[in-house]
Design brief:
single chain, 271 residues, alpha+beta, Endonuclease III, domain 1, 5-stranded antiparallel beta sheet, 5 strands
Length: 271
């Protein structure tokens, strides 16, 4: 990969506050990508920004302590900030992990994969769209539908693109399509400020939009709001991973995981 005139592309390094289980995280992220704008190639995360592609690689094959960003010249660049947000570069999961490791049902998972923390996101609108599409469908089905939506939006997910796209016969229920359009309209109109408002404000606005129920908002509270105790107890994957039989049973089990239920959910989903 070279720049203009054969010169090496710009690059910089991003330090992680605590080591990250790189390969485990990429394996979790891979089926949840926004296909088109982003991809995982081996142990490298790829993100398209305009006409360029940023490559993010770790300083080790399994555990990352630093990330090398090819295509970004300055760690203070906006793209570097988005990488840091996606990979939770500034977070220290040790206090939460130490507290959760006292719980017998989580201790083995934490021991196998130390350093895990909840995924962040590159773009708040993309994450909201992907989360809505993932309602009541498998991860694989959601990936297919998201890829289809990206194609109909011209290769990227933007609020204006969703509003302008032909979403007829896209494979989603009409109410879900209406939810996506309502989300996009709220952002375009300035009613929903995903990138600049605090999570409490974002959550308040989402509650008033159709299609943003408790599960959706709790999941977004983890990845977008960075709420350490957010917990989508109605999630089927969490219920099964915890060995429970109902949302109510999982909620009772999760009382022992407070105030770090978001990290507990991340371990149950991932390990």
């Amino acid at each position: 990969m070279t720049g203009a005139g054969g010169a090496a592309p710009a690059a910089c390094e991003l330090a992680l506050r605590r080591a990250l289980p790189w390969r485990v995280w990429l394996d979790y992220l891979r089926p949840r990508l926004i296909a088109g704008p982003e991809a995982v190639d081996g142990d490298v995360y790829l993100r398209r920004v305009g006409a360029s592609t940023i490559r993010v690689a770790a300083d080790g094959p399994r555990v990352a302590r630093r990330l090398r960003l090819v295509g970004v010249a300055d760690p203070g660049d906006a793209a570097a900030s988005r990488v840091a947000r996606l990979f939770a570069a500034d977070e220290d999961p040790r206090p939460a992990a130490q507290a959760l490791a006292r719980c017998p049902d989580l201790r083995p998972r934490i021991g196998r994969v130390p350093g895990l923390r909840p995924l962040g996101c590159w773009d708040g609108f993309e994450l909201c769209v992907r989360t809505v599409i993932g309602q009541q469908v498998s991860v694989a089905a959601a990936a297919t539908l998201t890829q289809r939506l990206v194609q109909r939006c011209g290769g990227s997910l933007t609020p204006s693109g969703v509003l302008d796209a032909d979403l007829a016969r896209i494979g989603m229920p009409g109410r879900r399509v209406a939810t996506l359009r309502g989300l996009a309209r709220a952002v375009v109109d300035g009613h929903l400020r995903l990138e600049s408002a605090g999570w409490n404000e974002v959550d308040r606005v989402l509650q008033d939009l159709p299609g943003f129920g408790p599960w959706t908002r709790a999941y977004l509270a983890i990845r977008l709001g960075r709420d350490p105790d957010a917990f989508p107890h109605g999630d089927v994957g969490l219920i099964r991973a915890a060995g429970c039989h109902s949302p109510a049973g999982l909620l009772r089990r999760a009382e022992a995981w407070r105030p770090y239920r978001a990290l507990a959910a991340t371990y149950l989903w991932t390990v």
